[in-house]
Amino acid sequence: MSDLSSEEAEEAETDLGEYDGERSSEGERHGRGKARLPNGDTYEGEYQHGFRSGQGIYRFKNGAYYTGEYLQNKKHGRGIFFYPDGSKYEGDWVNDQRHGYGVYTYANGDTYTGEWSNHNRHGQGTYIYKDTGSKYVGGWANGIQEGQAELIHLNHRFKGRFLKGNPVGRGKYVFDIGCEQHGEYIQSEQDKGEEEEEEDEPSLLVELKWKASEITKLTLWTPHGENPPSP
Q1: Strand partners, 151
Q2: Predicted TM-score (pTM) of this structure
Q3: What DSSP letter does each residue of 37-87 carry, written as one string?
Q4: Rg value, the chain, Cα
């Protein structure tokens, strides 16, 4: 999974840099205007009482740029951020953070569509892996897969619960041939051995093992248990 690109720092415009545009009766930047900041970044768009507020385009000298809504110099509302590595986020912003609902297209072609909180994938969302076509549909917490979810592959899928990015507890694999395998994921600890140990790391590794219990025809599945097939 691709890591989220960090935001480029936008420079404050408190009477710094060159400005060409409308001003208020008090001399503040107010209305539409263009600014070139001392660090080489540029902004073209709307101002209110000296702040970037309203619609605008902020271009970074490294090639990244943001086009969308501002409120008092911060990205706030709907907007699109194009990152230097070719990735892109389109969606909601609150106080300079990805927050609300949005779509992130990563540099490797993966995509995430869903809820965000304070810059992280958080809530319900769908992550699609471009190379394999696999798809994770379900819960997220602070950027990590967590909660009830479905991991969909080419000819089978896993339904269950995830914790810290890994499946945990009871779940089932559903196969396109018309059957499903019930079971649970069990964590087992293995000794890393003296050669692999480091001072700051625990000496045990956690390994996930799938323990199958039964194979059945397709059933209706809920997080609370199995329901018999409809007649």
Answers
A1: 136, 158
A2: 0.82
A3: -TTS-EEEEEEETTEEEEEEEEE-TTS-EEEEEEETTEEEEEEEEE-TTS-
A4: 24
Gap between the Cα atoms of 70 and 59, Å rounded = 14
The string of pLDDT tens digits covering residues 31-83 is 999 999 999 999 999 999 999 999 999 999 999 999 999 999 999 999 999 99
DSSP β-bridge partners for residue 103 = 90, 113
| Under 8 Å between Cβ of 146 and 139 | yes
How far apart CA 136 and CA 1 sit, in angstroms, is 11
pLDDT at 191: 46
Q: Which domains does the chain have, with CATH numbers?
A: 16-84 (2.20.110.10), 102-189+206-221 (2.20.110)
Of 127 and 178, the one with more pLDDT: 127
* Strand segments (E) across the chain: 18-23, 29-36, 42-48, 51-59, 65-71, 74-82, 88-94, 97-105, 111-117, 120-128, 135-141, 144-152, 156-163, 166-175, 179-191, 204-217, 220-222, 225-227
The per-residue pLDDT for range 10-19, each reduced to its tens digit, is 877 765 789 9
The pLDDT assigned to 206 comes to 58
Q: How many CB atoms lie within 10 A of CB 41?
A: 21
